[in-house]
Each structure stands twice: as structure tokens, then as C-alpha cells.
Amino acid sequence: MDIDINIKVKVWRQKGPKEKGRFETYGLKNISQGSSFLEMMDILNEQLINEGKEPVVFDHDCREGICGICSLYIDGYPHGPDEDITTCQLHMRKFNEGDTITVEPWRSAGFPIIKDLMVDRTSFDKIIQAGGYVSVNTGGAPDANSIPIPRHDAEAAMDSAACIGCGACVAACKNGSAMLFVAAKVTQLALLPQGRAEAKKRAKSMVAKMDELGFGNCTNTGACEVECPKNIAITDIARLNYEFLNAKIRD
Amino acid sequence: MNKLDPKIPAGPLAEKWSNYKSNQKLVNPANKRRLDIIVVGTGLAGASAAASLGEMGFQVHNFCIQDSPRRAHSIAAQGGINAAKNYQNDGDSVYRLFYDTIKGGDYRAREANVYRLAEVSNNIIDQCVAQGVPFAREYGGLLDNRSFGGAQVSRTFYARGQTGQQLLLGAYSALSRAINKKQVTLHARYEMVDLVLIDGRARGIIARNLITGKLERFAAHAVVIATGGYGNTFFLSTMAMTSNGSAAWHCYKKGAMFGNPGMTQIHPTCIPVHGEFQSKLTLMSESLRNDGRIWVPKKKEDAAAIREGKLRPTDIKEEDRDYYLERRYPAFGNLVPRDVASRAAKERCDAGFGVGTTGLAVYLDFADAIERLGKDVVEARYGNLFQMYEKIIDHNPYETPMMIYPAVHYTMGGIWVDYDLMSTIPGLFAIGEANFSDHGANRLGASALMQGLADGYFVLPYTIQNYLADQINIPRFSTDRPEFEKAEKDLNDRIHKLMNIKGEHSVDYFHKKLGHIMWDNVGMGREAKGLKKAIEEIAVLKKEFWSNVRIPGVATTTNQELEKALRLADYFEIGQLIARDALNREESCGGHFRLEHQTEEGEALRHDEEFSYVACWEYKGEEAAPVMHKEPLDYEFIVREQRNYKS
Amino acid sequence: MHWLINSTIGRKFVMSISGLFLILFLLFHMSMNLVLVFSLDAYDQVTQFLGANWYAVVASLILAAGFIVHILYASILTLQNQKARGKDKYAVKNTKDASWSSKNMYVLGFVVLSFLVLHMIQFWYEMQFKELFGMEGAINRGSELIVPLFKQPLYVIVYLIAFVALWLHLTHGFWSALHTVGWNNTIWMKRLKNISYVVATIIVAGFTVIPIYVYFFVPSPF
């Protein structure tokens, strides 16, 4: 049964990208375990506003686990201590009376902090812009059923396509590597006949952009896979490696 | 009423769109390069439009309120997208999709627009597959379909329970490609805060940089609004937190008429409200109604015992359960349209049969489906939804029925547009949920994705040329012009005023109050008394807001409270217009249900003689009441009937 | 071929290939050592055979190159990764998400390298190096070195510690190398990880046998 709990929240506060940040600890009383983690943050902000302080800035939007904007590192875990969820799906029943919960932003050179817990993830967009698409103009596409795709391939492509671009993989990685994110997109499109035509070019240009943006080198620790809220598998990284090496060696 | 000319092309229904395309004006490639288009929003409609217009050679500026176009709330659509492919050989056709959409909308949509929508629906599926959208497939490798509310054919294409996500990522990938080719310039973390008119035409916007807090000016030859709906007026809805009505509202205040603002859709399958701290409602896909059966206890004492926690739903015997949708609507059963399903749930709960601790919930039960299909099949179809439910409610839906209750989900109303998707302001276009056009008084499931992509990929890129063909000699405008100057100054004054109220209550405090007024009086069952009360109460609340809101911090940096305050200031006005429109419409149709107008069985009672029109509202200033104009809906091709989902 | 330096996957590819090459060397080295268990004389013949012959020298050079590339790349990758991680560290460390060895390959590698230096001074310098440069006291018969060394408990322990580090390094390194060259998928993931344990265990067990065998079973030369 859900009960009301009293907790402390230790939150990273940072006024701007160049400012020095620090932790602030706030006490919260009677938080229902049935509320979501972000609702708890709302209550905290309401409390701060009522006390005349500035509320904590954090990214959040759909609050149903699909837009991928929410990005809190809670008690040592990207998206908090629960399996297969985003921060907005985390509920307070994961916490107990008297807990002190530490909330940090994603930390990685690729994701500079904007303010408090809000980080800049436009680097992910830049990687997609470098080649995460099938080059097809609007109009003139052939009938959708003209190319049969084995169900198994379509399902596997969907597994990879489920990536929400939240960046938990980078946040969890000790190397600050974006390989899982890039691998998911490359894999999705490599598995489908529509994406095969430019598979080589895609793998090369997306990896080049990822390197240019300063993400780290993957050492296959697998932390990304554990923290991915959508269960993207690191075998996608093996596929990306294959696609990339295949492209380079054949050049 | 010249302004409200829908400009529907002549000719038979099935030929209107082809005729239009054959005869429309085009812009040649050299001229496209000299024409700028602003597209506000990066959801299905915005991203697909920006990408398509960019590919065609226009200079596109695309604005995104989130950090990335991929976050737009289209991403949350779960169930699917309709198209008249007839891959299942179950008798589907363009006409049938058109007819179902018109009927589903309770005969309050424009025939020609809806027919065009059904016509291009097939192209959308082709386009998305070509982009690499991993739709569900049969073992033979061909596309699979599922059925959805309001239809007797299986025409819904889907990608697990994440169809909206996959379609949006498809559009986002096309957009990303256009950005890479410098055909589109993306402005992320910007919010449009005003529309700028020059000589009566839409020529630019003022957008607030959400990082620096600065107001910035952008000029263009045309402006496209793709900013979605205004459902967050109700505070609790299935919208995302940043989904808002302000962009559309500022267009309205600059002279664009607002069509059918009262048409809001309450979605039947959402996770029930559980406390005052709740920030949003989570939708459970309508596709669940394919296999789930909706019921409440037959006996009031059973319902009461469940509410008190003395009985569990699994304790209720089969014969003591009331599968009220199957009982009332034998032909469509659990797959009746959303408005019908929502009202039926409310009716049962109001009558004292509701479950959950609040009594405001009904069961959606998968026990039969699990027995019939096996747990694996059910998991393959709905696994992610079940997981989502369990994370929120902490109940396992494989073992105990889900609890659901209706919630605000979609707004059929929006900026009035003609067949070209142009508003009453020349050069201002509205697409997707932001316009009013295709869903009449109720949208069918899996049709929002269809309309958003139809507008963005296949309609606007044609129709906008009809306007721009006359603009090729207009040079780019300087943003130093007095029109921009004034718009920015007005906004700065408004922000300054808000920041300096320094009152006692947070923005959410007021928004929650507004939400209660809206839900209680302008929700599923509306009546004149309540609607009038709502208009008055909102006026009082708005006044209090403008004198007692507290926004901490400064305006010249990231300030999420200020963002919310600017939006809420508009929600008060939107809420009043919703109520006003609902009050004017003395009939029940689709999602708009007036308690005074119902049949003996409690179904919506339309009054076609008096109300077969689009109510178009014209802004007349802060203090004056808006004026309503009518665009008559003449049904040339369809005979209007009372909607019947019983037999 | 600049992508082997400029691109992350290229660099990782070099790491993998050099690592796999070194694993092959370890297997070779280990099987050679095992000869000792069967006959000290045979072992001495093998060590004599691998003296300062041109083929042994060429093989040694290639091997050295393999080590240098592997170590150099490991250092570059680690430095880059630290930079990519950013200056601010998390206040609450995550200890659960990844295996300790996968996160500490550089540390383990450093332990193995330190051991390698010691090992080279104790054996390679005495045998091949001295012979190659015509120095006095070059030793051809391996048993003359190995038996006295492993009669000292301290060195047995030092070697065993190094083998543990090597085992941890290999359990992650082997599957990771194959993964990086793209030879992995959802079905093979589990298998590769298991094979990885088997390979690491075979190599390390083979090496471990020697000091223990010498310490307990070979008659003392003193």
C-alpha cells in the first residue's frame, strides 16, 4: 500500500553553463508514494516558490515515458532506481520514509549543463542530421507492400527504433560514449531494405559526427544497456561496428 | 461573409483534389529559394511540413519548443494510423474511410476536406514505409492492421504501442535530412509568443528564446502554425506539459478566426486521477479496447464494497458484471467511438457504479483475452501499455483488470482554415491539431496521426504555393520594421507586468483552479447554467491571477515559471471561449454533449437545421465579447443520420 | 587508413585486433610452458630453439609491436574517455551497472604491464637479449632460470597475482574484442561471454600450473 513519507532531496543547483554548481538539500513532508518522482519535484518547486526561492529547473514534457526529455540522475542511476523506465515513470513508492534522495543532471562533456538539472542534448540531433535517415523525398514512394519485410526483421528493427534519445546511455557510460544511441538508429535502418541502400554512408557519417562532437570511445562495459529505459541492446553496437568496419574496409 | 469562404473546388467529391492540383498555381524552383516560410511546431504536422517544404526548395525556419523536434507530443500517440489501403480485403475504401470520419465527427466536418484526407491517407503509409518506419508485419512480410473505435474494418497500421513515436521519428528523420542539406533552419527551445502582421498579412513571429529569455524576431513570406491543441486548458489532460494553446491564441488575437473552440475530445481510456498533486493524465491506447472488455459491477453494493477495499474485482462473478458498452451498443460493443465510450463511463460512475477509491473509474478487463489468446499474444500486443500501467498504479493488469476513466485528450476545434489550410489572415496557415478542420465534433482513433501527416506531407506543400505564387516579387522583410518593434515592445511590457506582480501564489495554483472550473462545467456533460458560471468564474480567477501570481527569478534567463504564466494567461481566455462556444451550440454532437439535448436513451441529439455550421469566433478586443460567424456545412454527398452504433 | 586513428571504431578495431593477437601469443606461450610439466629437458630444448635465431627475433619484434600498439591505444582511449566524461563527477557512484573488470581494463592492463616488465627482466633479458647483444652470461636453458625463481614463495605469489589480473582482463577483453570487430549478436552474446571465461581460464590455468608445479614438485637445484 502507498503511504505518505517524509524525505530530503539533495539537488544540484547551477545558475548557468559557466557558473559553479553545488548541492542544496530540501526537506519535504507527506509525499504520497503514489505520486510520480516529477510530481514530487513539482511539490518541491511549489514549496520553493512559496518560500520566495527559485524553483529547480529540469526538463520534462510528456510525462508518460516516451518523449525522452526527462533526464535526472537519481541516487546513482540515470532515470532512478527502477527498471525499464524514464524519470517521469519513476514513482515515489521506490523510496522510504527518511530517505535522502540525490538528484543530479546527466554528466558528460557531450551534454553541457544549461541550468540546474537541465542539459543540452542537441548533439544527438546533430548526429541524426548527419545521416540517421533514409534519403527519400516526400511523394513518389512505392506502395507500402511492394517490398515484403520478414516479420522477424521488422520486429528487430522496431526493437532498435524504440530509442527515445534521452541520453541515459551517455549519462551511464564511464566513457561518455554515445555508441548505443548511434547504434540503435544505424541498426534500425540497416535491418530494413529501405535503409540498406545508404547503410555504409550512414554508418560512416554518423560515427564521424559522433567523434567530432567529442563523445568517448566505447569499451563495452554494458552500463548503457542496463540503464536504457527502452531496452536497446548493446548487440546493436556490434552491428554498428560491423557496418562501419565493413564500409571502411571496402572503401 | 467573404472572409469565411472555404474555397472548396467545384466538381464531384472524388475529383476535387485532383482538379485542384491540376489547376493550382505553382512556384518555380528559382523563386522558391527566395521565399521564406516559418513553421511553428515539430510534431507530425510541423516536422512533415517543414521537411517537405524544405525539400521543395523553400527556405524554411522551423521552431521547436523542446530541445529537439523528436520530443513533440505526437510521439505519445500509441495506437495507430488509419489508411484506406484495404490490405485486409474487408471492404475498406477511400469513400468508407471518408464516411466513417464524417460520421464519427457527428456530421460537423467539411466534406471536401475529409474526402481529401481519406484520399491521401494511403500515400502516408507508403511514405512512412519508405522512410524506414517499422510498422507491424504479418509472417509473410506484408503490413498488419488492427481495428479501432468507430470502424467496422481493420484499417489501422501500427508499430507496437508506439505508432506516434515511429511516425514522428520518421518525420523527424526527414526533417533532419533537410536541416543537414540547409533547406531548413531549426530553432530549438524557442516558443512563439506573437504573430506579426504587415499590411494585413502574416509576415513573421516573435519567439522567446527559452534559454536566454530574449525575445527574437523572425520574418517570412508565410507562417504555418502546427502547434497542436489547447487541451491543457483543463490542467489535467493527456497533453505534454509544454503543449499549449498560445501560438494559436495569438493568431486569433491578431485576427484569425477560431473554429469550433468548444469541440474537445474526452478520451475514454486514461488512468484515473489519484490525487491533488497529479500533474497529468496518462492515456492508455484505444487499441486496448480491441481485446479488453469494459465493465462495472451490476450491483451498487458490490461497487461500494470495491471502493472501500472490501472486495476485489476478481471477486465479482461473471453474472454480476455489467459490460455496459456491449449491452448498450451490440454492433460496435467495446469499439464505439470515443465520445460515446466516455459518456457511458461517466453515466455509470455518476449512477454510483464506479470503482477505484474515488468511484471515478471503470474496469478494462483482459481476462477473457488472455484465456482466448494466451498471455504471450496479449503481451506482444499490449506489453508496453501493461508495463506503463503497472509502473503508475502498482497493479498487474495480467491478473486484475485495469482501471480507466475519461480524460481530456484532443481538441477538434482550432484555427479556422479554408480548403488551402489558410486562416482568415492571408499568409497564415494552420495544420494538424492546430486547425479545426477534419474531425468535426469528434475525432476517431488513429485519425490524428493521419491528419497531421496528411496536412504536412501532402496537402500544405501544394496549397501553400497557391498563396506564395503571388508573393514572388515581395522581397524579404526587415525585422527592424515598426510592426516587429511594436509586437516586441508589447510583449516585453506583458512580461514586465507579470514579473512585477510578485503576488502570493504559484502559476500552477491558478492553473489547477482553472482546470477544476473547466472539468466541472465544460467537461463531458455541459449545460447552460454551468457554462455561464464557468465564464464568470474564469473572469474572476483571471483577475486574481493578474494581481496575485508569483513568478520567482528574472525574465532574462531560463524561467519555466514565466513560461507557464504566459501560457496560463492565454488559457483563461481560451477557457472562456470554449465555454462560450459550448453555450452557443444548443445541441449535442460528438464530444460536445449538452445535457439539455439528448435522446431518451441518453445519446447525443443533434439539431441539424440550426447548428449545421462551423462556429467561427472573431476577436474584438480585450474587453469586448467575441463575435461569432457561421460557415454553413452543406452536405452534398452524405445523408446525415443520427449516429447509430447499436445495430 | 587514417580512420584507424581518427575514428572511435577504428581505434577500437586496432585495440581488438592487437588484443586478439596477444591472446594468441598467450596461448602459444602457455602451451610452451606446459612442456615443463612433462619434462624439464624438453622445456630446455624449446627455450634453446627460441634463442637469438632470426625467426625468433622477428617473432619477438612483431610481438613487441603488438604490445606497444595495444598499450599506446589503451592510453589514448583512456585519456579521450576521461575528457569525454567531463570535469564534474557524479556525487553518487554507480557500482552495479557494469562488471568491475569491464570498467577497469586500463588498471588491469597496467598491473599486467608492470608484471610484464618484471617478467622480461627475469627471463627475456637473461635469455634472448643477452645472447642477441653478445653479453656475458646469456642463458639458453630455461630451467636454469625458472626453477630457482619459483622456489621463492614471494615470486610465486607475485606471479599468481598477475595471473588473476590477466584473467580479469581477458574475461572482458576476449568477447569485447570480437564484439568490436562486429562479430556478435543477441544469440551469440551469451555464448561469447561464456567462451570468454573458458579462454581466459584455460590460458591463466596453463600459466598458473607452472609456478605451483615448480614450487612443489621440481627438485631444488640448490
Helix and strand topology:
The complex is a heterotrimer of chains A (251), B (647) and C (222).
Chain A: E1 4-13, E2 22-32, H1 37-50, E3 72-74, E4 77-78, E5 100-105, E6 113-115, E7 118-119, H2 122-129, H3 151-161, H4 168-172, H5 179-191, H6 193-196, H7 199-212, H8 223-227, H9 235-250
Parallel strand pairs in A: 1-5
Antiparallel strand pairs in A: 1-2, 3-4, 3-5, 6-7
Helix pairs in contact in A: 2-7, 3-5, 5-7, 5-9, 7-9
Chain B: H1 16-23, H2 29-32, E1 36-40, H3 44-56, E2 59-64, E3 81-82, H4 94-104, H5 111-131, E4 156-157, H6 163-180, E5 184-188, E6 190-198, E7 201-209, E8 215-219, E9 222-225, H7 246-253, E10 258-259, E11 264-270, E12 293-297, H8 300-307, E13 321-322, H9 324-328, H10 338-353, E14 362-365, H11 367-373, H12 375-393, E15 402-411, E16 414-415, E17 428-430, H13 448-468, H14 482-499, H15 507-522, H16 528-548, H17 560-584, H18 608-611, E18 613-618, E19 627-632
Parallel strand pairs in B: 1-2, 1-9, 2-5, 9-17
Antiparallel strand pairs in B: 3-4, 6-7, 7-8, 10-16, 10-18, 11-15, 12-13, 12-14, 14-15, 18-19
Helix pairs in contact in B: 3-6, 3-13, 4-5, 5-13, 11-12, 15-16, 15-17, 16-17
Chain C: H1 3-6, H2 8-38, H3 40-49, H4 54-85, H5 100-103, H6 105-132, H7 143-150, H8 153-180, H9 186-217
Helix pairs in contact in C: 2-3, 2-4, 2-8, 2-9, 6-8, 8-9
